[in-house]
Amino acid sequence: TWHAWQDIARLVRLVVADRPGSNTHIPEALAQHLDNLGKHVIHLPFTPLNVSATDIRQRLAKGLPVDEQLDPSVAAYIRQHGLYRNTV
Fold this sequence. Notes:
Helices cover 41% and strands 5% of the residues.
């Protein structure tokens, strides 16, 4: 459902990270397109974490702690740049 997915696949290396409950099956059209380009999807080798980016953004917007969900350097960067603050 990505807009211009063929262009995205041509321009970047696609990397997949497993998440609990997610399906990392590569759609056939994408697999064929990548094969034609001589590319493949890279699967990140790590233990999946039960972490939701949406939940983290919501917690940050509410000023709630995210110490257990984010690396300290990432949390510091977000604070330093005022990202995900609730502006309403």
